[in-house]
Amino acid sequence: MLENIDFTLVNWSRGQFALTAMFHWIFVPLTLGLSYIMAYMETMYVKTGDPEWKRITKFWMKLFGINFAIGVATGIILEFEFGTNWSNYSWFVGDIFGAPLAIEGIMAFFLESTFIAVMFFGWDKVSKKFHLTATWLTAVGASLSAIWILVANAWMQNPVGTIFNPETARNEMINFWDVFLSETAVNKFVHTTTSGFVLASIFVIGVSSWFLIKKRELLLAKRSIVIASVFGLISSIVLIGTGDSSAKEIVKSQPMKLAAMEALYEGQTNAPLVAFGILSGKENHKNVDADSQADFLFKIEIPSMLSWLAYGDADNFVAGIKDLIMGNEEQGILSYEEKINRGYEAQQALLALKEVQKTNPESPEAEELKAKFRDPDFIENNVKYFGYGNFYDPDPEVLKKNAFRMVPPISMTFYAFHIMVILGVLFLLLFAVFLYLVMKDQLHNKKWLLWAGVWTIPLAYIASQAGWIVAEVGRQPWVIQDLMPTMKAVTQIDVGSVMTTFILFSVTFVGLFIAEVRIMIKQIKVGPQKKEEPKNV
To answer: Domain map of the chain by residue range?
Structure first.
């Protein structure tokens, strides 16, 4: 029953986790991308012996170090919150979610932290090749750290390779490789890491553009722009490709998210893609009796493109918000009310088993109930919708309203998705133009373009955050798709404690962010170390 849920606690817990995650993601993408850019620059130094490459590498390494240190601090807090604020979630799926986090700590974090010391302090203390190896392993370690976190998140979006154990009332992993190599996990890892590569490339181009504007460190700036433009261009192409793959996967596992991304209320064949649009702000799905489609003040559509992107066939039907809520028998889509009833039946079977186990755990009735949860038909038709049962209400009218409440915020998801896509295309063009002009040695004369490069840095962060808004806000009300709603995942603690820590974290994170920006700007203004004077023989 929803009336038994303390939504104030739920909302403050969600706000605290979102705050921590969004601040953490300010630092992570730059770490992911800049590590590989540095590694390539150092490779050029080892290959050519040109000391200028060493200066360039050390400069970007200094900025990497500032960012890395603060990113680690916010990441540790984020993982602790699973225990402090989301203990019900951790208990329900800890056997699955804990494995990737443990591997991340043992394998990736220790690899990264071990070689990062050599990378920063090993110059002239170890051989060039050993130092280069340490730099590359630091980059690989950052990616390994990301992969396990993203595998865990992908499982929350699409829970595969697991089974529900009615005796413990927990989900348990039955196939690690199904979890690790699921289509969702692969797409999420490649898409997310390449978004970090794009952001880092823009950061390098922006800082280098500032040097060109100030007519300082011209060789450093031009070399850095060449590398960042090539790296960013390749990453952007991969990013677009994995974005397309992700959309096709979302159609299968999270169709409501896709409908929210496009504000598609009425499903249709030859569904158009909204290239750009402005919503009126009226979210009609909140009204049970609404029959109108999404109310756009203005929109530009590409005919049939959404059907083609989703299925590779323009004639395919794309489900809208109403099809998913109310069902569409012709398309084989179950209504939310039907899913709620099926999930409720699974929950009632579990409660019945628990009651029998209290008095006679070995009785035929107990064995019959256990067998029910091993029945493939019951798993497919009921256990699959276990989380929907939390929205059940015996009153048909309340049940109907609850079904309509199970829709993510449309406006936020729609705008975040389109901001991400529009900026992604802009970045691709930016890399191509910068690469062309710097190779023609004409970039330093285009002051307006250089300033555009500088001011694209915050746009890269906006696009990066928008991507996570689509991923996380777009799947609400689920913390685990179809299995556990967010409202059931929270720790039952005092709301005041969550509010207090939210305020403390806000102050701390804002302070850290301001400190990092100031330190970064100061180090950029200082620039790289002075050129080494040739030693007298």
So the answer is: 2-257+410-522
